[in-house]
Amino acid sequence: MIIYSERKTPGWTFVEFVLTIIINAISLLMATSIFKGFYINGFWYAIITAVVIIILNKTVKPIIKLLALPLTIYTLGLFYPFINVIILKLASFIIGDNFVVEGWIAPFFISLFISFMTIVLDALITKQIMGGRK
After folding, report:
1. Which of 119, 107, 128 minimizes the C-alpha distance to 23?
2. CA 15 from centroid of its chain's CA atoms
3. C-alpha angle 102/39/12, rounded to 5°?
4. pLDDT in tens, 63-114
5. What b/e string do you get for 111-124 counting C-beta neighbours within 10 Å, with b at 16 or more?
6. SS (H, E, C) the chain
7. Sign of dihedral through CA atoms 128, 40, 109, 63?
8. What phi and psi values does residue 3 have, to the nearest 5 degrees?
9. 131 vs 39, 70, 100, 123, CA distance in Å?
10. Residue-wise pLDDT tens digits, 77-90
11. pTM for the model
12. How many CB atoms lie within 10 A of CB 61?
C-alpha cells in the first residue's frame, strides 16, 4: 500500500527512508483533506503515522497476507486491497485519537488514494533528489 520502491537492491539508504516517510506523510495529509472519516492531528502525527504504517507493512502485513490467502484465492484477488484497510485500521488503533479511520468502505478508497499519491510523489520527488540512483 503505502510503501513503494522500484529499487532493485534490498534495503534503503537513510535519505530514501526519510524521503519515504515525508512522502507518505504528505499523502496522508492530502487524504485527510479529501476524505471524510479520516483524520490526522497535524503534520507530526502524519510523520508518526507514516512510520507506524511502514513498520506494520514490513512486519504484520506479510502475516495477514498469509492468513488471508484462502479468502484472497476464493475471491479471485478481490480481498487483497482490504489488507491495506486492515493496516490503516491497525495504525489507527496504535496511534489513537490523533489518527482516526472510520468505517470499512471509505478506508478502501483512502488506501487506493494514498498508494496512488505515494507512487506519484515518489516519482516526482525521490527520483529527482536521488538522481537516478534509486
Report:
1. 119
2. 18
3. 105
4. 999 999 999 999 998 888 899 999 999 999 999 999 999 998 889 999 999 9
5. bebbbebbeebbee
6. CCCCCCCCCCCCCHHHHHHHHHHHHHHHHHHHHHCCCEEECCHHHHHHHHHHHHHHHHHHHHHHHHHCHHHHHHCCCCCHHHHHHHHHHHHHHHHHHHEEECCCHHHHHHHHHHHHHHHHHHHHHHHHHHCCCC
7. positive
8. -85, 125
9. 34, 42, 36, 11
10. 888 889 999 999 99
11. 0.82
12. 20
Residue the block writes with cell 510523520: 47
Query: What length is written for the chain?
Result: 134
- Grid cell in block for residue 93: 488503533
